[in-house]
Amino acid sequence: METKSESDTSRHFLRQWIEADHAAGRTGGEVVTRFPPEPNGYIHVGHAKAICVDFGMAKQFGGTCHLRLDGTNPTKESAEYAGSIESDIRWLGFQWSGPGDSGEPGFYNASNMFDQMYQIAENLIKAGQAYCCNLTQDEWKQYRGVPEKPGTPSPSRDTDPERNLRIFHEMRDGKYADGEWCLRAKIDMASPNIHFRDPVLYRIRHVSHYHLGDKWCVYPMYDFAHPIEDALEGVTHSMCTLEFEVHRPLYDWVVDRLDEMGLLPVRNGVKIRTQQREFARLNLTYTVMSKRLLLQLVTEKRVAGWDDPRMPTVCGMRRRGFTPGAIREFCERVGVTKVESTSDPALLEWCVREELNQTATRRMAVLDPVKLVIDNWPKGEVKEVETANNPLDEAAGVRRIAFGGTVWIDRADFMEVPEKKFFRLAPGKEVRLRGACIVTCVSVEKDCEGRIVEIHCTWDEGSWGGNASDGHKVKGTIHWVDVATGVKAEARIYDRLFTDPDPMKDGSEGFLKYLNPDSLKVVTAYVEPALAEAAAGDHFQFERTGYFVADTKDSKPGAPVFNRTVTLKDSYKPS
Question: Could you tell me which of 15, 301, 425, 496 has the fewest CB atoms within 10 Å of its CB?
């Protein structure tokens, strides 16, 4: 979806970087990017920004973007997560392309490169650039030291390659337990960058891999695997979030070693040397973005699953009724910078509202119903109201709605003792029933607890269509649903998942205390009969109420369930 904001932000620093490389001939005639998610959870709106950047940059330069599932940590990964990632990316409107290594163009599994990665690690050992170390994690923290002072070399650092190669093969063959040995790069124990002090390249994990089964019990670290994958795939520009900036020297070190081994690909006579750059991640207030904490919410049943509409996951936002175009527009408006910031979800909701205002079918629904009876309505008479399905889209046509003189209205549209400037229904006051007629309240009925259960009115018999018979103006117009033909429906009203804009302000151990107990309210509504057969995923504007979507899991023909996507209006104004 082309938008003004897309063109306004198109020349951010990443694009300028790629433009310069492309113009200088360093891409071999083709810009290649990649999106490398780890299949250890469902992707969220922060990943959506990275997806827009990775796929968007490739598209802008007529290049290709690979989808690569980074399966280097089998303890947390699953085929379920892998499948959800593919589905969510396609739903967002993107498609990977390029050669691929998994039988599908542009689709890669990092685990398919494990054999080659192992051989590369062997080459590093033979060249004296890697060694096997049996220090425990606590011991290594002492040896590694602090950035201000040089670290202490591991006792294994200067052992001979033959010894290290033997241990590395024994690690692969399952001789050792988890954590007993690891393979380290031999780089610089005096570097002020702690990640450059002999980082781990391989560790032992006796865990079955979701893609390869039990083929391996040693697995490469992401910092080692990532540059290898980028380089061997011919990726020209590797874009990551800012937390990887301190890892870039190691990325470059690995690429240098691949170059020495003659493994960098050549495209159109140009050696492709992949490069990494970093940008600020997308953060949202009133939620958490850590996969670990989102998983905690799911496993502790604080939410109804990864696709709960309160979650910041892409599948949750889809179920909430957010559209791919609105999410892309939001990511564009947030922009690409190197400065960390936090975005207000009101901007995302504004983007959704702007799109749905143009596209959503209009319907009437009453979420807090109270019965209104027109006492002087001819008994048994039914009239029809004709109204537009979408006043902004003439092609959407019109619909006819039955009106039988007894209707449901929203309780908030009646006030027994009206406040100043309350222009809806009150005793002795008149109001227009949307598209139908003008009624005046004459009395109310209450139950034993004093709650109003029925409002009695009379109608201006010359007002059919909505104009007063004597031509005077009526200020208030309210929506309604015919009692005889209206359909019961479940409506789910969603609010922020957390009460505080920064639920992490006390750390990850205290975020649960800010859970919003009112983040979901379920009500029984009455809706137009046309909504009884709403298809899952269909979007609607419930007039005067908000934008809703038919739930993709629970809504069934004859028993509709609607999720509120966003309210009808908001005071937020995008800058």
Answer: 301
d(CA 207, CA 184): 21
Give yes or no for a contact between 521 and 530, defined as CB atoms under 8 angstroms apart. Answer: no
From the candidates 38, 229, 278, 528, give the one annotated as an active-site residue: 38
Residue 4 reports pLDDT greater than 70:
no
What confidence tens digit (pLDDT) does each residue in 211-223 have? 999 999 999 999 9
What lies within 8 Å, CB to CB, of 117 at 6+ separation is 220, 224, 225, 228
Choosing from 26, 76, 277, 281, the catalytic residue is 281
Tell me whether residue 144 is one of the annotated catalytic residues.
no
Q: What's 101-113 look like in SS3?
A: CCCCCCEEEHHHH
458: burial class by Cβ within 10 Å (0-12, 13-18, 19+)?
middle
281 in active site: yes
Q: At what angle do helices 13-23 and 45-60 cross, to 10 degrees?
A: 30
Catalytic-role residue among 68, 203, 257, 291: 291
- Which residues are bridge partners to 569 per DSSP? none
Q: What is the pLDDT of residues 325-351, one digit of tens each?
A: 999 999 999 999 998 889 999 999 999
**Residue 10: predicted pLDDT:** 53
Per the annotation, the verdict on 277 as an active-site residue is no
